[in-house]
Structure formats: structure tokens, C-alpha cells
Structure prediction request, 205 residues.
Amino acid sequence: MANGTTAAAPQSPRVREKRDRRSKEILRAALRGFRERGYHATTLGDIAERLGVRKTALYHYFPDKESILHACHRESLAELDRIIRGTRELETAAERLAFVIREHVRVMTDTLEGSPLAFEVTALAPARQREVIAARDRYERALRRIITQGVEDGEFRPVNPKIAIFAVLGAINWIARWYRPEGSLHADELGAEFAEHLVGGLTCG
Prediction:
């Protein structure tokens, strides 16, 4: 080229698929480390050891540990966006809230493998913190709208939507403090139990 630089060759679908798969494997290994040892005590070396590779291999995908944490947050937030979209297919507020709870529990137990990401936002750089917090705020507002609609339709008791959602999210986020993937509780069962208790506490009757 005239300027002396060489344009990077475009990646083939196969190469992109392989790269995406490896990135997800790194995130899964990191999440297990964060769950077992905590974010600050987990090193890139620990993550690499779980994958059976050298630490330098991780730099082909992520420049540092914070970037891995940020990617984990973005993946979980994308799941929460998907959950909200899924509520549009449901008719009643109770159905929508139960769906959100079941799916959010699945994200906590399957996608995040019980890792306490909700408690690790402050480990991110300020710009990344703002991104994550803004996405969480959008999610919470969507949930408050479900509660508000349920109250207006007479499905739910006349509660404060903000406090009700804080209670729901607090219960779900606390799963990270005690859940173990290898335990006897499965995600589907746990989600159904949470939905029954949390939605049941709001319904009229």
C-alpha cells in the first residue's frame, strides 16, 4: 500500500467461530475462578491454568483481567435484554414477572455459574462502570413498569414498584453468595421456586 501499512486480512467465518468459542471458554474459566476465589484473588495465570494454556495465550483475546470482567458483565447484560424482549410475548404482569425471575435465575446459575458479578462493578474502570450501571438501570426500569402495570390491572397489591423490584433483584443477586453448580439444586427448579415465592408475595388474593 502507498502508506507502507498492510491491511489486516478479513477473518473467515470458521476463524471467527473458533475465536468466539475460545473467548467464551476464557469467560467460563474466569467466572469459575471469580466464584471460587473472588475477582481480586483470581489472576490471569489462574484462568490460563484452568484452560490448560499459558497466560500469554489469553492476551490474544483480552488485554487484561478487567477486560475479561467487563466482557462477563456485557454477556450477562445482553441476556437481561433478551429476557425483557421475551416478556413482550406474555399477556399478564404476573406472567411477565415470573418469566423474568425464572430467566434471571438461569442467568445467575448457568450463564454466570453463580459468580458474584453484581458485587464486582467497582473493579471496573469508571467508563465501564457507567456502562454497566446504565444498562442495569434500564433493566430495573423495565421491571418497575411490569410491577406498575400489575398494580394498575389489579393483579398485584398496591406496592411501591421500586422497593418491590429491589426486593426481587436482591433475592436473585444473593444467589451468587450460596449457589454451587455442583450442588443438588438445578437452575430450572430454583427459578420456579423463586418465581412462586416472589410473584406470590405480590399477587392479590
Summary: Confidence is low (pLDDT under 50) at residues 1-9. The longest helix spans residues 126-152.
